[in-house]
Specification:
It is built from three helices and seven strands. It has 123 residues and is α+β, with helices and mostly antiparallel strands. It has a single domain, classed as Small Protein B, Chain: A, CATH 2.40.280. The strands form three sheets. A three-stranded antiparallel sheet has the order 2-3-5, with helices on one face. A two-stranded antiparallel ribbon has the order 1-4. Strands 6-7 form a two-stranded antiparallel ribbon. Strand 2 and strand 3 form a beta hairpin. The chain is flat. The protein starts with a helix and ends with a helix.
């Protein structure tokens, strides 16, 4: 469920799904952390950029995907946002989060890449 200024910002491509995820609450699905920038020409009627947005899904979709994610401790992740016949759509995927040791591996790789980049800049 979007406001008018949110739709206009989406049409301008001012959306970031980097830190967004889906959350199931009381048989409803919410999009949390999606950043839709404010629309420049909507003065006082502008929206809050990082507000929670309710996703409109059919009951069978909620039961099939969202409930599966809730039961198996998986995460709903928005993959892309697009327009179809004038309506904004969100393609959602189900994934498993990283374990603690996976996070440590990622941090080690980032540190090594940063050190290599620093060494190359000095030379």
């Amino acid at each position: 469920m979007l406001t008018g200024s949110e739709v206009k910002s989406l049409r301008n491509g001012q959306v970031s799904l980097d830190e967004a995820y889906g959350r199931v609450e009381k048989e409803e699905v919410w999009l949390v952390g999606c950043d839709i920038s404010e629309y420049n020409f909507a003065h006082q009627l502008n929206h809050i950029p990082k507000r929670r947005r309710k996703l409109l899904l059919h009951r069978r979709e909620i039961n099939k995907f969202a409930a599966q994610a809730y039961e198996k401790n998986l995460t709903l992740v928005p993959l892309k946002m697009y327009f179809h016949r004038g309506r904004a759509k969100v393609l959602m995927g189900i994934c498993r989060g990283k374990k603690q040791f996976d996070k440590r591996e990622s941090l080690k790789k980032k540190d090594m890449q940063r050190d290599i980049a620093r060494a190359l800049r000095r030379d």
